[in-house]
Every structure is written in structure tokens, then in C-alpha cells.
Automatic annotation (TrEMBL):
One of its GO terms (molecular function) is chitin binding. InterPro entries: Chitinase_II/V-like_cat, Chitinase_insertion_sf, GH, Glyco_hydro18_cat, SH3-like_bac-type. The chain crosses the membrane at residues 55-77. SUPFAM superfamilies: (Trans)glycosidases. The keyword Transmembrane applies. This is GH18 domain-containing protein. One of its GO terms (biological process) is carbohydrate metabolic process. The keyword Transmembrane helix applies. Residues 1-48 are annotated as: Disordered. Residues 297-612 form the GH18 domain. It comes from the Bacteria. Keywords: Membrane, Transmembrane, Transmembrane helix.
Length: 612
């Protein structure tokens, strides 16, 4: 055989295994390949292949993890397209339910749609829109009191009476279902400072009752208003670019808004533009004007506790030692029974004596120490329109016959449940006093949360004067002994009253009495009311000495007895002067004193110093 055809024996590179073939390496000549393969151990190439496979696997794992994380982030942060259940959102379930959106508050199902007319439940109306509407569930009559009389509507009627004028509405004004009364919203709008619009799916009304400055904005581009501040919160509805919304609150990257059709929810802050403050007004409504009798002098009213007709004869003796008293307030009127009849011990002679002394007489009407003498009995009278009317008519008739100048209302047994009936009574009595030229004043406790149902704000509108009873800080029913009328108590009472009553209507009542307390070793205590002179006598008889108490701004004394420790916070010239300074510095309408006959003679010069 020739040299070219001779069979050559292949020599395996060191480290290679028989039966395996290697792929040619790209970019190298055969000689280079032979040299490379001859120099590289087989184990190195295997390790490199293994390492490459590990890197590739790691990269694949990273890619899978990145995909999973991306999916999780997408699921978590991508905007939800879920639509909110609007019936559940508005709190409606029945087809005739009417959802109520009032200003910036969703009230839920607060009414009904009856014969295509929106009706608002009375309690929703009273508690949220206007408490001047009054529903008498006993006699099925709706009232709204104007300065000169009542608007009166019977259930199921479209006709009504405004003071003395008959009028007709376009719908039935009041409907009832069981114990619930519903009032037509168009009728409410006639007497309340509101505007409203009705929308469907679900049926709802958006009522605006708050006027003045408000923030509004436009939608920058199409977006959604969501139930809560978050992209996963259900969508209430879509918002179109340039649509206007009312901005209610800022919350991080979101803003709480109210849409034009009464949806309250959240929009991303960067979806809003042209945010600005605008002025909302209601040109269709005119507030009723309540006229008041206002004296051109500072009131100095002395309550005269008259318990029977014979006591009227002592008026000359009582007023003989006074100075600067402008007004006498005898306790003449009580409620005789739960039918609303009046018990009177008034005296025309008393009035004549007072007038001869240049004093006016404001007869006091009380809800205690008469035939009616409990909170339940007072409720039985005031919760019926016919009984209130009877009582008021009898009071006015007696006042005119006797010749008094005003009525001083002193109702102290009003329960929370009776609150709205009492306030309606105040309105109605105020109307009758106004119509007959009688000064109308109303006595009140120091305002506290538990007596808020006396509605000082409404009294300040409908009455000529509002009287703060700046005493009874501690009584027989208190859990501890203490002052009848400390400086701080009176000061706090004045400040609270002035939140709702103008200065020129506020009269401050101060005490001419104090309490002598006896604290027993058992921890119990008793007390007795003492006039100024009797209080001083008690200290003198005990051989005690009164010292000035800076905290109450009163003279204080205590001493030991066989029964325990006696304590007394005095009402005297020093304590009265501290209270009179408050009244004078605040430029209030005047002062009232409980009661005539409890004072010492030096007090009148002191009061006169600050009154005039």
C-alpha cells in the first residue's frame, strides 16, 4: 500500500475515554485543536460544563422568582375593577327606600319614595336637617314655629295652615307608617335652609344645608372614585375628565371627595386639578326674623318666692330696703294638672305697687310646687299640642288681666325624653308673649352635657332674655359638700352660655343664700339653706372665724359639733362682688337674685355699683 492509503492508528489524548467523540471547537485550525486538546485535561472541561449548567439553572430560578414577584406586585398594586354594591353602600334594601346624603355625610336609608315624592323620616329631619320641625305623635300633627305663629299640618293632608293662612302643597305633606312619620322633602325645603337633588340607581337625595366656603376641584383625566383610599377598594363609579367634585379631606396620596350625584369616596390626589375655594349660597331661603324686646338699661331682677295669695301683701315691705331693682319676678304660676290647666296666685295690686316703685313684674311660671310636680307629669303635659296650647293661653290671659310686664319661665324638671316638647313649648310661649308685648325670659341651669336637651341655642333665638341660674353647684343631692356658687362655677357657666346666647340677652342669677353642711363621722352629710344674715349668725354662735378661700373666692368657715364637722361657704358682700365683676366685665344684660328677703342690706349698694 502507498503511504497515503496506509491505515493510521489514532492516538487518544491523555485523559480521554474510549468511545467518546469531541465536538470541534470553532475558530481554531486542526493543528490548534490538536494542541489544545492535547494540553487540556478531560476533568477541567467537565467541571466547566457543570459550572455552566449551575449558572444557567440559577439564572432560570431568578427569572422564575422575578416573574412570581412581579405577579404578586401586579396583583397587589394594580387597580381593582370591582364595582361596589351601591345598595349596600347607601344602606337601602327595599325598592321604596330613599338614601340620604347630607352635605358630607351619608345617612343611609333615611326616607321613602311615595308616589314619586321623596319623604324624609322625622327623626332624620329633626336630628340632622332642622330641629325646628316638631312632630306630635300623640295628636298626629306636624308643626313648624315661625316668629308670629305655627305652621300646622295634619297627617294625610296636602293643605296646611301657616299662622292664620290656609295653604296647599303639591303633594301629601305628612305620611305615617306605624309609629314613623315621613315628611315630604319639597315641603321641608319651604321652611329649611336647604337645596336638594334626587338621583336613581339606587334612589337617593343629596341635600346641601351647609353654606359658605368649600373646596372644589376638577378631574384631570378619566379615573374612578373608590369607596376607600386604596386601589383595591371597590369602585363607586367612573369619573370623566373635567367633572367637578367637592374636596372634603386629604389623606396621603388620596383625597376624599363628594361627587355631584352624592357619592362620597376617594380619588387619587394626582387625578385632580384646578382645586379652589368657592362660596356656596342659598338665595332661595330667607331666615325668619325674630324680634326681641330689649331694655335700654341693665336688668336687676329679684325673684320673689310667693307661695300663697296672702304673701303678695308683703311686697311693699320686701322692696322697701332694696336699691336699683328694675324687675320683680314673683312665683305665681304653676301647672295645676296633667290636662294643662294653670294654677295662679297672681295679684293686680302687687303689680300696681311694683309699678309705683318703677319696677316691672315678670311673673314666674314653674313646673314644680304645683299640682304637677314630677318629670313624668310635666312630660304628659308638654308632649300634647292641645295641652301646651291650653296652658299658654291661660298664662297669657292671666298675665294680661293682672297687668304684668313679662313671663319668666322656670322649668327645672325636664327629662331628656321631654326635651323637644319643652323646646316647642318655649317657642310657642315666646310667640304669644311677642304678640302681646310681654317680655319673655327663660331660666337655665349651668350648661352641662346632661342638660343639653334644654337647647340654649334655640332659647337664645326665640326668647328676649336667657337667665343663667349661677347657683346650686352643690345641693342636698350632691355626692360631696361644697359651695353653692363658687367663682369658677359662675365663670364657666357664663362662658358656656355665651357660646349660644348673645351678651345683650344673658342675665346671670346669683344666690342670696348658702348651705350649712354637717359632715358626720359615718361619711354622710346633711345641709340646710340659710340666708346671708342667718349664715353669719351660725358662724358667730359657733365661735368660728371665716377666712378667704382663694379657689372659690368666698369666705369659708368650719367647726366641730357633737354631730360632726360643720362647713359653710358664705355668700356675702365679698363673694357677690366677685360675681358682679364677671357680669360687669362681660357687659351682660343684667343680674338676677334668688331670692328677695335672703339678702343683707349692704348687698344692694354693692350690686348697684356694678349694674349702673
Amino acid at each position: 500500500m502507498s503511504e497515503n492509503t496506509r491505515t493510521r492508528k489514532r492516538v487518544r489524548p491523555a485523559g480521554s475515554q474510549p468511545g467518546t467523540r469531541r465536538r470541534p471547537e470553532r475558530g481554531k485550525t486542526p493543528d490548534q485543536l490538536r494542541r489544545t486538546r492535547g494540553n487540556m485535561p478531560r476533568s477541567s472541561r467537565a467541571r466547566r460544563r457543570k459550572r455552566n449548567r449551575r449558572i444557567l439553572g440559577f439564572l432560570l430560578v431568578l427569572l422564575v422568582l422575578a416573574a412570581i414577584v412581579g405577579a404578586i406586585l401586579w396583583i397587589r398594586y394594580s387597580p381593582s375593577k370591582e364595582k361596589a354594591d351601591l345598595k349596600e353602600y347607601y344602606g337601602v334594601s327595599n325598592d321604596d327606600d330613599l338614601a340620604v346624603v347630607l352635605d358630607n355625610q351619608l345617612l343611609g336609608a333615611g326616607g321613602k319614595v311615595i308616589d314619586n315624592v321623596p319623604y324624609i323620616e322625622y327623626t332624620v329631619l329633626r336630628d340632622n336637617i332642622s330641629d325646628r320641625f316638631y312632630w306630635d305623635s300623640n295628636e298626629n300633627v306636624l308643626l313648624y314655629t315661625l316668629p308670629n305663629g305655627n305652621v300646622s299640618v295634619q297627617v294625610g293632608e296636602s293643605t296646611y295652615t301657616e299662622v292664620n293662612e290656609k295653604k296647599t302643597a303639591d303633594c301629601t305633606i305628612v305620611k305615617t307608617e306605624g309609629q314613623t312619620a315621613y315628611i315630604a322633602l319639597p315641603f321641608i325645603k319651604e321652611y329649611a335652609d336647604i337645596q336638594y337633588a334626587q338621583y336613581e340607581d339606587p334612589t337617593r337625595v343629596m341635600i346641601v344645608s351647609q353654606w359658605g366656603k368649600t373646596k372644589q376641584a376638577e378631574i384631570k383625566k378619566d379615573t374612578q372614585v373608590r369607596r376607600l383610599a386604596g386601589v383595591k377598594s371597590p369602585v363607586l363609579r367612573d369619573l370623566k375628565a373635567d367633572e367637578k367634585v367637592t374636596v372634603l379631606e386629604k389623606l396621603d396620596d388620596w383625597k376624599k371627595v363628594r361627587t355631584s350625584d352624592g357619592m362620597i369616596g376617594y380619588v387619587k390626589a394626582n387625578r385632580l386639578k384646578n382645586e379652589k375655594t368657592t362660596e356656596l349660597t342659598n338665595d332661595e331661603y330667607q331666615e325668619p326674623e325674630y324680634t326681641s324686646i330689649s331694655k335700654d338699661y341693665t336688668i336687676n331682677m329679684a325673684w320673689n318666692n310667693v307661695t300663697n295669695t296672702i304673701a303678695n301683701n308683703s311686697v311693699l315691705q320686701l322692696i322697701a330696703g332694696t336699691k336699683g331693682v328694675t324687675t320683680l319676678a314673683p312665683t305665681w304660676y304653676n301647672i295645676a294638672d296633667t290636662d294643662g290647666n294653670l294654677k295662679s296666685i297672681s295679684s293686680a295690686d302687687y303689680v300696681n305697687y311694683a309699678h309705683q316703685s318703677n319696677m316691672e313684674v315678670w311673673a314666674v311660671l314653674r313646673d314644680f310646687q304645683g299640682g304637677v310636680d314630677s318629670a313624668d307629669q310635666v312630660y304628659q303635659v308638654l308632649s300634647y299640642t292641645s295641652k301646651r296650647t291650653k296652658l299658654i293661653n291661660q298664662v297669657i290671659a292671666d298675665a294680661l288681666q293682672t297687668g304684668v310686664d313679662g313671663i319668666n319661665l322656670d322649668f327645672e324638671l325636664i327629662s331628656t325624653e321631654c326635651g323637644e316638647h319643652y323646646v316647642q313649648f318655649v317657642r310657642e310661649l315666646g310667640v304669644k308673649c311677642r304678640q302681646n308685648g310681654l317680655v319673655f325670659s327663660v331660666d337655665n341651669y349651668v350648661p352641662m352635657s346632661y342638660n343639653a336637651h334644654y337647647n340654649i341655642k334655640e332659647q337664645g333665638i326665640v326668647a328676649d332674655y336667657v337667665v343663667l341660674m349661677g347657683y346650686d353647684e352643690h345641693t342636698n343631692n350632691s355626692e360631696e359638700t361644697g359651695s353653692v356658687s363658687s367663682y369658677g362655677y359662675v365663670k364657666d357657666g357664663i362662658e358656656k352660655m355665651l357660646e349660644n346666647v348673645s351678651k345683650d340677652k344673658l342675665i346671670v342669677g346669683i344666690p342670696f343664700y348658702t348651705r350649712l353642711w354637717t359632715e358626720k363621722s359615718s361619711g354622710d352629710f346633711t345641709s340646710q339653706a340659710l340666708g346671708m344674715a342667718d349664715a353669719q349668725d351660725a358662724i358667730s354662735k359657733a365661735g368660728a372665724t371665716a377666712t378667704w378661700d382663694k379657689s372659690t373666692r368666698q369666705n369659708y368657715a368650719e367647726w366641730e359639733t357633737d354631730e360632726g364637722t360643720d362647713k359653710i361657704w358664705l355668700e356675702d358682700a365679698a363673694s357677690i362682688e366677685e360675681k358682679m365683676k364677671l357680669i360687669h366685665d362681660q357687659k351682660l344684660a343684667g343680674v338676677a337674685e334668688w331670692r328677695l328677703g335672703y339678702e343683707t342690706s349692704d348687698i344692694w349698694d354693692l350690686i348697684l355699683k356694678y349694674v349702673n
